[in-house]
Amino acid sequence: MQFSDDHEMFRRTVREFVSNEINPHADEWEAAGTFPAHELFSKMGDLGLLGLTYDSEWGGGDADAIYTMILAEELGRSASLGVAMAIGVQTDMATPALNRFGSDELKANYLRPAIEGSMVASIAVSEPDAGSDVAGIRTRAVRDGDEWVINGSKMWITSGTQADWLCLLARTSDEGGYRGMSQMVLPTNTDGFAVSRRLDKLGMRGSDTAELTFTDLRIPVSNTIGVVGRGFQQQMAQFQDERMVAAYQMVGAVELAMERTVAYLNERMAFGAPLIANQYIQYELAEVAAMLDINRHHNWAAAEAASRGEDITRHATVAKLTSARLARQMADLAVQFHGGMGYVEENWPARFYRDTRLWSIGGGADEVMLRTLARMNGIGSD
Amino acid sequence: MAMNIVVCVKQIPDPADPGELDPNTKTLKRDVKLILDEADSYGVEMALQLVDAAGGGEVTLVSMAPDDEVGGIRTALAMGAAKAVLVSDEALVGSDALGTAKVLAKAIERAGDADLVITATESSDGYTGTVPEQVAELLGLPSITFAKSIEVDGNTIKVKRQTEAGYDDVEAPTPAVISVTAGVVEPRYPSFKGIMAAKSKPVDEVTVADLGLDADAVGWAGARQEIVEIATAETREAGTIIEDEGEGYAQIVDFLADLKVI
Ligand SMILES: Cc1cc2nc3c(=O)[nH]c(=O)nc-3n(C[C@H](O)[C@H](O)[C@H](O)COP(=O)(O)OP(=O)(O)OC[C@H]3O[C@@H](n4cnc5c(N)ncnc54)[C@H](O)[C@@H]3O)c2cc1C
Ligand SMILES: Cc1cc2nc3c(=O)[nH]c(=O)nc-3n(C[C@H](O)[C@H](O)[C@H](O)COP(=O)(O)OP(=O)(O)OC[C@H]3O[C@@H](n4cnc5c(N)ncnc54)[C@H](O)[C@@H]3O)c2cc1C
After folding, report:
1. Which of A47, A356, B54, B78 fits as disulfide partner to B191, beta carbons 3.0 to 4.6 Å?
2. Quick one: pLDDT at residue A59?
3. Are A6 and B75 inside 8 Å of each other by CB?
4. Is the pLDDT assigned to residue A87 strictly greater than 90?
5. Looking at ligand 2, which atom is closest to the CA of residue B65?
């Protein structure tokens, strides 16, 4: 992969943005359990960071997916992976379906403001009783004239306490399984919408996560994204963008954790030498360095395939699975080799350890990635 | 009132990866990729703000650099400058500060009617801090140095000029050459759209001859300065670490007393 001068300039812009606009506030946001999404996103919108690959007609950048990758890698190097995740939700988890399948009216009212950063978007798929098994969701939208009447609840919704609209996946027929689902834009200022609670999480604490309920909530049928009944398939396509962004972010995150860990081990003396002098430590880190290379190159291939408009399901599945595991491995080594200094809140490894644990669960657990891959390879049956 | 501003921007080796000195010429090797001198990003930002405040006009960049280098210019164009004049010529190798000033002065004239010329106080690599005043002299323009803020009022430029004690209020008629100090404004990051737009902004690439300058007046031929010697800076001595066993403060007091600061 050959990065252009433009790519490099863009990377510097994002890196400076992260170091000036995110990192100085990260501790405060982590402690608060949330961050000011509207304020941060509008700054990002001004820089054109929120709709890189989207059509300029809606304020997007008409860029290729390499820019998405650079943005996500640099966000992965931020001091708050929770905030990085929430940004990823805005750019590549809650909006791709609207961009791909939405009507012009919906794009004007919801995509454009999301790209500008004046509206915060959430993706609402998971429920208390259905996470890995998306076909098991129960939230229903029943048609009444020109309106959907929605009842149900959604769980684990990133930015759920401050979102202006949700990209909702709901049942719109009784067919069952993955049939009869639709995606729709649900404005959160609609009667019947409630944030039932904010969840107190192990990590990703800079990002707010909510449980939401809908009670006889009415929205126009014209808020449907794409085709009624095709919601599951549309969401599966959207998941691929989500998974790639997680994988891009983890490459940035592991890269920075490696740099910082090596720097620390060069300074820390034990048994008359810097800790880094121990071959055991060198090799453990070299194992991660090798996998990091492989993940990085695989991400490049994925970004290029995405730019060519190819189906990246396989790329996204492999990238999400392996990069999440690599981040966990790096986090474990960072804590281990920092010793007590890695176990206290005042140093970065503790937060890193908690935050990276998420990506083997969120966006489809490791086992769900393996299930997809097994099916693609014709391994076993179900 | 529209306002046209020329900003001199130097493109330098990345200070994070500065390369090395050439033992023969005793100058910094510039065969690496060059970037916008951070010192000049403040001038670019100030110029963009002044043009905004004036409600019209544009920012033109002027740069002298080897090998048709545009890396740093592109950054400033992405920030919002409209166009650039780049002087690049084999004959410029070895130019001293006066040679550089001669080239910049001609390039500024080529850029067209400027209401204001902005430079940094000193570059991050050469840092002689002498180019701006020489440019002003060659152009026959007033020069104000160490500006921490610039305000334009009709045909008058009002500058707060940084001093050791605070600042002086200084005025000059337009056009004038103003050098700004680092850190006085927050340079914007190039936006994604700015980066894309920079690709199609015009860069007027010119040679010494295009500027009507004699090749003998610049480069090694024209240099009146000579770099006699380069030497490694002395490494700083390690500090003293005081283990505080309850009496640490006394040692600090002694130390300060030795320095005669208390
Ligand atoms: C911080 C955070 C943010 C989130 N943000 C969002 C969001 O914005 N929007 C949204 O819709 N969702 C979000 N989620 C939900 C996330 O996508 C789900 O948690 C995830 O898909 C797993 O679903 P679940 O929690 O219901 O686990 P379950 O489905 O109950 O699975 C539990 C575990 O069982 C194992 N497992 C599952 N399936 C299999 C299998 N086939 N074979 C073997 N083992 C299996 C896995 O180890 C899995 O972790 C978020 C979650 C978290 C924690
Ligand atoms: C004898 C001698 C030989 C040299 N040989 C070489 C050489 O071979 N190759 C080489 O690259 N350099 C060479 N240099 C250094 C180069 O000529 C100096 O960088 C130049 O004289 C400018 O001086 P400065 O950086 O100290 O400017 P300063 O006076 O510190 O600069 C102040 C401001 O003036 C503006 N400015 C200065 N230079 C430029 C520029 N080039 N383009 C646009 N704006 C500018 C900027 O706004 C800058 O911040 C040589 C210097 C000497 C003394």
Report:
1. A47
2. 97
3. no
4. yes
5. 41
Q: Are A61 and B193 a contacting pair at CB < 8 A?
A: yes
Does residue B102 form part of some domain? yes
Chain centroid, CA B119 distance in Å: 5
Residue A71 lies in a domain: yes
Say how far apart CA A273 and CA B140 lie, in whole Å.
63
Would residue A381 count as lying in a domain? no
Residue B83 φ/ψ, nearest 5 degrees: -160, 175
CA–CA separation, B231 vs B164, rounded Å?
30
Would you tell me how many other CB atoms lie within 10 Å of the CB of residue A233?
15
B95 pocket-lining for ligand 2 (C-beta < 6 Å)? yes
Of A5, A9, A48, the CB nearest to B193: A48
pLDDT of residue A275: 98
In angstroms, what separates the C-alpha of B33 from chain A's closest C-alpha?
Answer: 10
Q: Would you place residue B28 in the very low, low, confident or very high pLDDT band (cuts 50, 70, 90)?
A: confident
Chain B contact present for A259, CB below 8 A: no
As given in the structure block, the two tokens for residue A22 are 């995110």
* Predicted confidence (pLDDT) at residue B31 exceeds the cutoff of 80: no
Q: Which ligand is nearest to the CA of B28?
A: 2
Chain A residue with minimum CA distance to B193: A48
Residue A38 and residue A72 in one domain: yes
Percentage of chain A lying above the pLDDT 70 cut: 99
- A262 and A314 housed in the same domain: yes
Q: Which ligand has its closest atom nearest to the C-alpha of A128?
A: 1
* Letter string b/e over residues B157-174, b meaning 16 or more CB atoms within 10 A of that residue's CB: bebbbbeeeeeeebebeb
Structural domain includes residue A196: yes
Are A190 and A239 part of one and the same domain?
A: no
Whole domain around residue B204: which residue ranges? 5-222
Strand partners, B205: B86
The model's pLDDT over B33-68, given as tens digits with 9 standing for 90+, comes to 899 999 999 999 999 999 999 999 999 999 999 999
* CATH number for the domain that contains residue B23: 3.40.50.620
Q: Which residues of A are known catalytic residues?
A: 242
Residue B227 included in any domain = no
Could you tell me whether strands B83-87 and B59-64 are parallel, antiparallel, or unpaired per DSSP bridges?
parallel
| CA A367 to ligand 1 center in whole angstroms | 10
Instruction: Please indicate whether, in this complex, the C-beta atoms of B191 and A67 are within 8 angstroms of each other.
Output: no
In chain A, the number of structural domains is 3
Does A56 share its domain with A80?
A: yes
* Among A63, A86, A120, residue at a domain's last position: A120
Does A252 contact B at CB distance below 8 Å? no
Closest CA to B118 of B157, B91, B90, B88: B157
Q: In this predicted structure, what is the pLDDT of residue A314?
A: 97
**Cβ A153 under 6 angstroms from ligand 1:** no
Assess whether A316 and A333 both reside in one domain.
yes
- Checking phi first, is residue A271 left (phi over 0); if not, alpha (psi -120 to 50) or beta? left
Taking the centre of ligand 1 as the mean of its atom positions, its distance from the CA of residue A126, in whole angstroms, is 8
Does A365 share its domain with A266? Answer: yes
Can you give the pLDDT at residue B145?
96
Across A238-252, A309-323, B130-144, B218-232, least confident range: B218-232
Determine, for residues B189 and A6 on separate chains, whether the beta-carbon distance falls below 8 Å.
no
Q: Which ligand is nearest to the CA of B224?
A: 2
A85-96 average pLDDT score: 98
Structural domain range at position A194: 122-228
Tell me the percentage of chain B whose pLDDT exceeds 70.
Answer: 100
Last residue of a domain, one of A67, A95, A120: A120
CB A130 within 8 A of CB A136: yes
Nearest to A190 by CA among A212, A169, A173: A212
B127 Cα–ligand 2 center, Å:
8
Average pLDDT, integer, range B142-148:
97
Residue A367 shares a structural domain with residue A244? yes
Q: State how many domains chain B has.
A: 1
The per-residue pLDDT of chain A, averaged, comes to: 97
Contact (CB<8Å) A10/B192? yes
